[in-house]
Amino acid sequence: MERVLSGMQPSGYLHIGNLMGALRNWVRLQEEYECFYFVADWHALTTNYANPSVIRDYTADLLLNFLAAGLDPEKCTIFVQSKVPAHAELHVLLSMITPLGWLERVPTYKEKKEEIRNRDLGTYGFLGYPVLQSADILLYRAKYVPVGIDQVPHLEITREIARRFAFLYKNDALLEPEPLLAEFPKVTGVDGRKMSKSYDNAVYLNDPPEVVEKKILTMVTDTQRMRRTDPGDPERSPVFQLHKVFSSKDELDEVAEGCRKAKIGCIDCKRILIRNLFKVLEPIWTKRREISARPGLLDEVVASGVQKAGRAAAETMGMVKEALGLY
Ligand code: TRP
Fold first, then answer.
1. 3.40.50.970, 3.10.310.30, 3.30.420.40, 3.40.50.620: which CATH number matches 3-187+294-324?
2. pLDDT the model gives residue 110
3. Could you report how far apart the first and last alpha carbons of the chain are, in Å?
4. Rounded alpha-carbon distances, angstroms, from residue 223 to 58, 110, 240, 258, 318
5. Residues 6 or more apart in contact with residue 168 via CB below 8 angstroms
6. Can you give the pLDDT at residue 325?
7. What separation in angstroms does the CA of 218 have from each of 187, 190, 215?
8. Ligand 1 centroid, distance to 18 Cα (angstroms)
9. Residues with CB under 6 A from ligand 1
């Protein structure tokens, strides 16, 4: 079976955008590939080193949601990056051969530095973020890496590092991975912008039902539809954007037509969305409760994942050390 690897940073609670965009795809892939999925807690430190106390809580939330959304520890390997020290070991070796210019040119490096003004990103660790990510991937000799389009530059540098390693040491311990870009639905936030924890517009998997309901009910819709009797334009409403992800084709047509012809009001439209959102979330809430009722379960899953990951990592590290002539 071909290997797949992917990771998520514990930099916030998991929201329905992450669920529909990434996690559901991970769940599908576990049926066909040998999958390694991990929480990238060291990566979260690169942007959050001044306030690391939140990372533990976010890590637990991610792990809980991995299982609640359907990742099966019998089928895939689930672990936490910082528990497999080989990630750091390979990172230090790769850092020796990675030209600074490659890192300074990564678009996410410049963008994030522009975007995040309230935190200091002038650190060695932040510049080296893609080297750490490369170590994550190359350590498992993964063939495919399911990621969003924003991560493609990181995958490109991973491939360049693997090639440089092969060229310098005439050794094929490190395999060039390929990104696996699935057709992800773009999930709109409750304010109409892209759903993101940094915009405070997300619906979280750990939001209680009444909070989810309230977040939807208080959404702005078509601001030009002043009265219930005015015809509206569904495309102007972020509620409709969410219907596109969570509602059936028939319901989508029904609310679009209802809006255009003023046959339904915005509250009716939101009620339908809430019902469909709950259809997706309820099984996850139920599983979250089941898992939480079994203390120690998450720790067991991670402990066994760490063992499996550690064995795979040790194989690669053996080859890498040999290539470098390390003792
Ligand atoms: N950089 C990724 C993100 O922000 C997270 C990540 C860390 C990752 N290591 C990885 C993704 C290895 C894929 C493979 O989404």
1. 3.40.50.620
2. 87
3. 32
4. 35, 36, 13, 16, 62
5. 97
6. 95
7. 17, 9, 6
8. 13
9. 5-9, 40, 43, 133, 136-137, 145, 147, 151, 154
Query: To test ligand 1's pocket by mutation, which of 9, 145, 176 has the most ligand atoms within 8 angstroms of CB?
Result: 9
CA–centroid distance, 132 to ligand 1, in Å, is: 9
Which mutation among 18, 111, 133, 181 tests ligand 1's pocket best, with the greatest number of atoms within 8 A of CB? Answer: 133
Please report, as a single letter, which amino acid is at residue 187.
Answer: V
3-class DSSP assignment, residue 147: coil
Topology (CATH level 3) of domain 209-289:
Tyrosyl-Transfer RNA Synthetase (1.10.240)
Q: How far is the CA of 197 from the centre of ligand 1 (A)?
A: 17
Q: Which of these, 135, 62, 85, 134, lies nearest to 301 by C-alpha position?
A: 62
Name the residue at shortest CA distance from atom 8 of ligand 1: 7
Q: Provide the token pair at 264.
A: 């339904």
Which residues belong to CATH 1.10.240.10 in the chain? Answer: 209-289
C-alpha 16/C-alpha 23 separation (Å) is 9
DSSP helix, strand, coil percent of the chain (3-state; round to 5): 60, 10, 35
Catalytic annotation on 112?
Answer: yes
pTM of the model: 0.96
- The Å distance, Cα 224 to ligand 1 centre, comes to 40
DSSP state of 144: E
Tens-of-pLDDT digits for all 327 residues of the chain? Answer: 999 999 999 999 999 999 999 999 999 999 999 999 999 999 999 999 999 999 999 999 999 999 999 999 999 999 999 999 999 999 999 999 999 999 999 998 988 888 888 888 999 999 999 999 999 999 999 999 999 988 999 999 999 999 999 999 999 999 999 999 977 778 999 999 999 988 999 999 999 999 999 999 999 999 999 999 999 999 999 999 999 999 999 999 999 999 999 999 999 999 999 999 999 999 999 999 999 999 999 999 999 999 999 999 999 999 999 999 998
